[in-house]
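Might I ask for a little of your time on a matter of protein folding? Here, with my thanks, is the record as I have it:
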Amino acid sequence: MSNTATKGLIQTNKGTLHFELYDDDAPGTVANFKKLVSSGFYNGLKFHRVIPNFMVQTGCPQGTGVGGPGWSINCETNGKKQIHDRGVMSMAHRGLNTGGSQFFICHNRAGNAHLDGVHTCFGKLTDGFETLDAIRAGDTMEKVELV
């Protein structure tokens, strides 16, 4: 990844996830994520959906998987980094161009390859993989910040 990539961290009750965003590959999705992070939107939200060997999902203000920020963003699925691999952060949605705040982090390539071209990959973990593996449904993102 480029040295100009935006970096950040997600402090969870299980440990810290460090990430880099795909500023160059999914600029609209990254801008939306940065706006939500900067406003404190994600602080205190739960991982409401965790499927072993697939992903952990968060970003719903209600903690149920049905909520969002009050707007939708366009999918950006044609870039070179649009590969769902271990540690990749990707926007959840309920159909094309309906994402907003919910996102998931992939556990592995095998369980997520079918999502390539369907969901927007907007970043990737650089550290904290043991934390990713320890997250269970109901765990919390205590603080999300850009560094």
Notes: The domain at 7-146 is CATH 2.40.100.10 (Cyclophilin).
